[in-house]
Amino acid sequence: MSRDQDMTDERRHAEGMKTRREVLGDAHVDRAQARTDAFTADFQDLITRYAWGEIWSRPGLDRRTRSCITLTAMVAGGHLEELAMHVRAALRNGLTRDEIKEVLLQTAIYCGVPAANSAFAVAQRVLAEEE
């Protein structure tokens, strides 16, 4: 039986919440949960089960690698609020400031200098807050 077939929605949600808390921290997840209402509950369930319970919990890549990929995706998509959250997550996942810088330098070539410029500003702010 494949991993997907073995995971019920309830188990996927529990695994996702565990991973989400480990990657993003309890405070962030608690704030997201506190803001959940009838309109956003289905979306919160979806991202918990699939983004965190299915993808981030897969054994094929370690969390450091997933963080590098996610930082790049946030820059490429121009998702700067999410980028800030994932810079914090990258630190929790063991990336150093220099490794985060290298990921952002790489994005300058493949995502564009203006996107990387904005990403560096966000990361600089987040890293200063985390010190």
UniProtKB/TrEMBL annotation:
- Protein name from the UniProt record: 4-carboxymuconolactone decarboxylase
Write down the PANTHER family for this protein, in alphabetical order: 4-CARBOXYMUCONOLACTONE DECARBOXYLASE FAMILY PROTEIN, CARBOXYMUCONOLACTONE DECARBOXYLASE-LIKE DOMAIN-CONTAINING PROTEIN
Quote the InterPro entries the UniProt record gives: 4CMD/NDH-1_regulator (IPR052512), AhpD-like (IPR029032), CMD-like (IPR003779), Decarb_PcaC (IPR012788)
Q: Which gene encodes it?
A: pcaC
Give the record's keywords alphabetically. Lyase
- Supply the enzyme class, top level: lyase
Keyword hit for Lyase: yes
What Gene Ontology molecular function terms does this protein carry? 4-carboxymuconolactone decarboxylase activity
SUPFAM superfamilies named in the record: AhpD-like
